[in-house]
Write a structure and sequence with these properties.
16% strand, 8 helices, transferase, 237 residues, EC 2.4.1.83, alpha/beta, Glyco_trans_2-like, single chain, globular
Length: 237
């Protein structure tokens, strides 16, 4: 009798042959550094805390451009502390520009989403879960941080500010193919190219703070190069 009941009971649901379970999203943070020995342990700790508390799969790729202050040594210690599956040090021998740092880091990224940000704590990692929520809400190709005043107005854009952004990996790869800038204008060109290609862009209001340690890495000559890059960009788009 029991055997008859067993034979009549509905079969257990099982995954159909040839069909894979949907892949869990993974987020690769590209973190270019130059003379960030003091800031790096803090930004990494905050990133790990934010991702871990939110149950988000992640990796942090540190691209150090030959920092003379020992940033690379600190990054190597962080790799040992958190594990080489979570912290990936991918250094370069010298300072080669922000745009090329992202290109270099992207080669090692295994996530299907890419987050680009600075290591100087000018934007807090606590906003990243909001970026991820925003992306999922609107199925956006890109989510960008935007500075807002308390009354809803937008702050004037600061030449020394670099914006935190989240990209679909394939979108970032396509944009990098289109971009010609290599320095700080790279991020602005990316968003202009994205609009040209009709990628969807979501925005998350975030607050900015001044550098915790050290000084801005954008000097007078780089500001001149930045402005020249902007003129070239607007002349060719």
């Amino acid at each position: 009798m029991a055997s008859e009941e067993a034979s009549r009971s509905p079969p257990r649901s099982r995954q159909e042959p040839g069909r894979r379970a949907p892949r869990q999203d993974k987020y690769s943070v590209l973190l270019p550094t130059y003379n960030e020995r003091e800031n790096l342990p803090l930004i990494v700790w905050l990133l790990v805390k934010s991702f871990s508390q939110s149950g988000i799969d992640y990796e942090i790729i540190i691209i150090d451009d030959g920092s003379p202050d020992g940033t690379r040594d600190v990054a190597e210690q962080l790799e040992k502390i958190y594990g080489s599956n979570k912290i990936l040090l991918r250094p370069r021998e010298k300072k080669l520009g922000l745009g090329t740092a992202y290109i270099h880091g992207l080669k090692y990224a295994t996530g299907n989403y890419i987050i680009i940000m600075d290591a100087d704590l000018s934007h807090h990692p606590k906003f990243i879960p909001e970026f991820i929520r925003k992306q999922k809400e609107g199925n956006f190709d890109i989510v960008s941080g935007t500075r807002y005043k308390g009354n809803g107005g937008v702050y004037g854009w600061d030449l020394k500010r670099k914006i935190i952004r989240l990209y679909r990996k394939e979108v970032l790869q396509k944009l990098i193919e289109k971009c010609v800038s290599k320095g700080y204008v790279f991020q602005m060109e990316m968003i202009i190219r994205a609009r040209q290609l009709n990628y969807t862009i979501g925005e998350v209001p975030i607050s900015f703070v001044d550098r915790v340690y050290g000084e801005s890495k954008l000097g007078g000559n780089e500001i001149v190069s930045f402005l020249k890059g902007l003129l070239t960009l607007f002349a060719t788009t």
